[in-house]
Amino acid sequence: MSRPPGKSYLSASQIRLRVRTLAASICRTYRNRPLTIVALLKGSVFFVVDLLRHLDSDTEVEFWNVSSYEGTRSTGKIRGLEHCRGNLHGRDVLLIDDILDSGLTLDRTRSHAKKLGARTVQICVLLSKQRKRARNVRARWIGFKIKDEFVVGYGLDLDQRYRALPSIRTLPSSPSST
User: Fold this and answer.
1) Which of 15, 18, 101, 156 has the smallest set of CB atoms within 10 Å of its CB?
2) Is 110 exposed, middle or buried (0-12, 13-18, 19+ CB in 10 A)?
3) What DSSP string runs through 121-164?
4) CB neighbours (10 Å) of residue 135?
């Protein structure tokens, strides 16, 4: 196994503890109300699985495979949204994503969930970059606020690599040097 890229940013134990705290807050908010999670793939996969382990067992789950990134930059275009479906009519929906960056993906998926009939749509992200956003999007639940750096691990990737790292790591300005 090769050495992990970049520098350590958040450890696996820090992430585990924060996920439990987020789940407890989500459970309190949706107590006695049916909830549908819409997980945005691929980046949220580890986060949503760990979060689901602490939520009510009758929570419904949809997976939407959407993307706007190529390499370390957003393309400004959402790919895959036209294939996103689900019975959201009258449901409380919680969008789960790995990171709130430009806000474009979460803005478009939130609008799409509303078009599919969601009663309410809230957002939960593992990471929120401290930067100016292209869209006005606020997450109700945030795992960690981070600097405007490119990170990988725990589902976050660079061109499909490094997702399986158990921690989150920052990459240098020139990721090709990793």
Assistant:
1) 18
2) buried
3) EEEEEEEEE-S--SS----SEEEEEE-S--EEBTTB-BTTBSTT
4) 14
Residues in the chain: 178
Domains of the chain: residue spans and CATH: 12-147 (3.40.50.2020)
Q: What angle is formed at CA 15 by the lines to CA 9 and CA 19, rounded to 5 degrees?
A: 150
Q: Is 72 helix (H, G, I), strand (E, B) or coil?
A: coil
Residue 36 host element (H or E): strand 35-41
How many CA atoms are closer than 13 Å to the CA of 164, on its beta-carbon side? Answer: 3
Q: Compute the Cα dihedral for 46, 174, 105, 27 and give only its sign.
A: positive
Rounded to two decimals, the pTM is 0.88
Which residues are catalytic, by number? 101
Q: How far is residue 126's CA from residue 154's CA, in Å, rounded to a whole number? A: 10
